[in-house]
Amino acid sequence: MKRVTLFVLSTALFGALPTLLTAQPIAENKLPSAHAKKSDDPFLNGAPFTFDQVLKLVGDSPIPLHRRKDAIQARGIDFALGSEELDKLKAAGASDDVLELIKSKAKVSSAAAAHVVPKPAPTGGIVLSCSPNECDINLNGKSIGPTLGGKLEVSKLNPGKWVVDFKKDGYLAHQNTVTVEADKVATLAAVLEPSKGTLEAYGTALFKKMIQAIGGDDAVQALASVQAVGSTTIWTHDGTSVRWTLLLRNRPDRALFQARAGNILHEVSFIGSQYNNSKNLKGPDALELPTHFGFIRDAMLAAVITRLQNPEFKITAKHALPVEGDEYTLLAENSAEKVSIGLDDQSRPVRVKIATTTGVGSAAIAYSEYFKGDRAYWPKSVQIKPDGWQHGIDVRFDTMDLGAHFSESDFKMRGKPLVNIGN
């Protein structure tokens, strides 16, 4: 019988791997028993294969394929398997079934290496709102753009405290801190205050708009020189009221009032702030008429506007246009007075509050029932309440002749009605 000799071919491939078969000749009738235990096979029980070993093993190896697969199954591999390793194994000639086996034994499978994405940390957001529209927003010192329609939503923020800066040209910057929580949306709002320059610019523009609303500068001049007929109701200190029919002739430097109740006619004339009254001015009701008429004269719409046109007054406003709900829109100040003005939806004065440092002359004035004359809008009704008075003075003008031209003699007391002012 012919004898054959087998030698171990893979000693160089697997380093110190013990020889699978001895170099001694084996008789053909003395092959290993089928009952030999695989655990005794050194090829199946070595250390896990390295990548270089597996790369050589899957190539053109003299070891039978089933032996190689058994070895990989039994010993495993000691490397992570990614897309780069897979490409190299395929290039070396690894079959699909061998690749699947290697994947099952790898520390990290190719699928995991290619597709496992770390779960992102939970984040939160902030909805920011700003008035006026639009504001520039900084988050932790970094610009993230302006609000749109007064709002800006920021998402994917790490939980924690964030510093928010609201900025807008012409306004004072505002800074605040907001806490962002995971999977929640916080809200933060800011109302920016106009700078001093913006306040004055708004005030100048709105004051001009107010003048235009009653007819312009020519209308103010026409309202400053008038003859008006109407009535006034004045409350006395004991709470009773007296109604007088009234004639008023007025220009900036002079005025003449005639008041009539029944057959009684009283007259008060003004030159500047000085006055004279008719000799029959007797009794508490009549003696207070010069004071009451002085308030009426100072509360005339043209008088208030002309007063504020003095350069000593600084006029400011918080908004470029009247805002619904604001009681007062314009603020005018000098060293001795503060005058607040509220406007209607047509930008005409409806409320005026005068506060003086001494208290003298402080009062609240209300205008209503605006009438469109041929030269200006003017209020038919005026209510005046001086500070400290329980009641005030109500005036209603039935007619008003605007831009009247008067001579000096037109302001002299005559002792008789200048026009029919009724009873």
What is the element layout, followed by pairings?
Elements: H1 51-57, H2 65-75, H3 83-92, H4 96-105, H5 110-115, E1 124-131, E2 136-139, E3 142-146, E4 151-157, E5 160-167, E6 174-180, E7 185-191, H6 196-213, H7 217-224, E8 226-235, E9 241-251, E10 254-261, E11 264-271, E12 274-277, H8 283-287, H9 289-299, H10 301-308, E13 314-317, E14 330-333, E15 337-343, E16 349-356, E17 363-372, E18 377-386, E19 393-402
Parallel strand pairs: 1-7
Antiparallel strand pairs: 1-4, 2-3, 2-5, 5-6, 8-9, 8-19, 9-10, 10-11, 11-12, 13-14, 14-15, 15-16, 16-17, 17-18, 18-19
Helix pairs in contact: 1-3, 7-10
Summarize the structure.
The chain has helices at residues 51-57, 65-75, 83-92, 96-105, 110-115, 196-213, 217-224, 283-287, 289-299, 301-308; strands spanning 124-131, 136-139, 142-146, 151-157, 160-167, 174-180, 185-191, 226-235, 241-251, 254-261, 264-271, 274-277, 314-317, 330-333, 337-343, 349-356, 363-372, 377-386, 393-402. Helix content is 22%, strand content 33%. Helix 1 (51-57) runs parallel beside helix 3 (83-92) and helix 7 (217-224) crosses helix 10 (301-308).
